[in-house]
């Protein structure tokens, strides 16, 4: 249970209930971050629009690189909800779940089971998700050569957005909801229980 209550259907308003119904059709149930964000209607809608536009616009990179970067970021920040949801999306796309789960391991950026592009993306997600940020000129130049300007900007944006999602969920105590078969992925720091 999150640190603040989820907004139930009956209190979500007409448009909120429509948004909830859409989320249920798409994901099987209402994502809990969605129901927490409904406490602030303006941010709820701005987030929903931003997420939809980002999903439609982020098509420069291969899906596996996008999803690995976002998943790695979620594991580094420690958002079990994001890990759970990300794994579900990866599996729905027909990708190898074990490959994704290996991205949660501490040594993933050096794991030879990942190709060169994947290792570079995983290391960049780590560098962007730490505090302080540890991105180097060499990393940016390498990724720019591999992915092009648009690919580098897309990767950077997606990692930044996932940092926002994951940190918000972790702060509000939103935990794995059970979207994926395996919600507990090795290497994910658990979110502290609400007080």
UniProtKB/TrEMBL annotation:
Alphabetized SUPFAM superfamilies for the sequence: AhpD-like
Gene3D superfamilies documented for this protein: AhpD-like (1.20.1290.10)
Top-level taxonomic group: Bacteria
Name this protein carries in UniProt: Carboxymuconolactone decarboxylase family protein
Protein's organism: Actinomycetospora chibensis
């Amino acid at each position: 249970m999150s640190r603040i209550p989820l907004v139930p259907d009956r209190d979500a308003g007409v448009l909120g209930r429509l948004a909830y119904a859409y989320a249920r059709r798409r994901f099987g149930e209402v994502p809990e971050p969605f129901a927490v964000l409904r406490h602030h209607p303006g941010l709820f809608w701005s987030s929903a629009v931003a997420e939809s536009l980002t999903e439609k616009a982020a098509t420069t990179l291969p899906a596996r690189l996008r999803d690995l970067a976002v998943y790695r970021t979620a594991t580094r920040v420690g958002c079990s909800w994001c890990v759970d949801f990300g794994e579900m999306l990866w599996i729905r796309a027909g990708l190898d779940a074990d490959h994704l789960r290996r991205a949660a391991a501490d040594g993933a950026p050096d794991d030879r089971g990942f190709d060169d592009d994947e290792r570079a993306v995983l290391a960049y997600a780590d560098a962007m998700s730490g505090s302080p940020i540890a991105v180097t000129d060499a990393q940016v130049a390498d990724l720019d050569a591999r992915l092009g300007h648009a690919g580098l900007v897309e990767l950077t944006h997606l990692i930044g957005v996932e940092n926002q999602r994951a940190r918000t969920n972790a702060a509000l105590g939103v935990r794995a909801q059970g979207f994926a078969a395996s919600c507990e992925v090795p290497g994910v720091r658990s979110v502290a229980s609400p007080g």
